[in-house]
From TrEMBL:
InterPro entries: MmgE/PrpD_sf, MmgE/PrpD_sf_1, MmgE/PrpD_sf_2, MmgE_PrpD, MmgE_PrpD_C, MmgE_PrpD_N. Belongs to the PrpD family. This is MmgE/PrpD family protein. Gene3D superfamilies: 2-methylcitrate dehydratase PrpD (1.10.4100.10). Residues 256-414 form the MmgE/PrpD C-terminal domain. Pfam families: MmgE_PrpD_C, MmgE_PrpD_N. Residues 61-220 form the MmgE/PrpD N-terminal domain.
Amino acid sequence: MNISLTARLAETLSSINPGATERHNARAGVMDYFACLFPVLHGSVLDSGLDAIFRVFPAEHSLENLALQLGYLSHSLDFDDYHANFRGHPTTVVLSSLLALSTTRKAQSVEDFLDAYVVGVELAGRLGKAIGTRHYSAGFHSTATLGTLAATGAACRLLQLSNAETQVAIGLAATQASGLRSQFGSAAKPLHAGLAARSAVNSVQLAQAGFAGQSSGVLESFLQALGFGAGQPADLLHEWGSPWRIVSPGLEFKRYPTCGGTHSAAEAAFILREQLLANAKLSDVERIEVSFPPGADTAPNITAPRNGVEARFSLEYVIADALLNGSVALENYSEAPVDDVIAELAARVSRHPDPSAPADELDPDRRFHRVTLYLRNGSSLSHCVTRRETAAAPTDVEAKLRNSLAALPAAQAQTIFNDACLADSAALQRLIFLISQ
């Protein structure tokens, strides 16, 4: 008997169990999630779209709307984690769904919660491989599309749905998945995460309620339709958890509040700044070039940003900021108009895809950014940083969370920090209560 891919996935979601290492990594993901969510929730960083989100999607008596709000909040700054296999941000969607659903589960154990999160990240990474190399380059936002399915799988695990219910839920998630990269640099991008989390909650609730949907062939159809001929369905289930995707390649925690596709360029610029200022000054720079594999600027594609939100997706602006300030700090990536001084230097940056490098869509992990400064005296300085080097550098997630809580009274901030470590189920319940008010 030929068992469908959806049926095999349903069996896997319920039967495989993460271990201590996976839960440890998941706790770091939880801390990073709240580090990205709290500045927006508490108003220390302005998000003018938030009021509309709260008015149009009120969370009172609505788990799906709470999931949407949490997804929006945690992705608003574009500071949340990234997964290379997924080519997107898994935690914002997966945890937002799980937290919303957990508000009605008073006996929710922290171990079961973390296991569901690990399973969601695993599914996210595997979907990224299974969909193939053309999904993202065709214009889809993986956080929104694949994230809907990943969060649904995690929710099925958390709620212990039957295999039959899980198949229906996965099918419903697949038929709702949507989101376009053309919305990058706007409030619609974090809305993608919210909509994906809401769709996941809706999918499991409908399945639990006995709603009838196709339980066979939908996942195969999804991979075929949105894989554009490059899908690899076998990668979805092959050697699941060997190793777990939350361990290898693992979650990448951002050090800068900009598109991940700008980070190695920023770090190259940091090095060049040190070299330049040893013997010259920034006014000596006549022009700047940045080279990278063809297609590596698909996400950071805004060349002349008008405000800090658009600047998060501008190679030019991030490089200029790094050169001028020696940092890439949140205050330069708010909704305010771009800084004139940074913008002036950014206008001297030009992009030069390197034709000798393999196309980025074939292996984004081999991405690099080479930044070259051409000085007015005819000399030049150049430095290259690879994506692997950037990803390998550690991020202090605890410091990131503490910094995000700095605007709160010290005692309150310390309590939230302690609870975000998820030492026990009581800490989880306190966090759930905090974000559901």
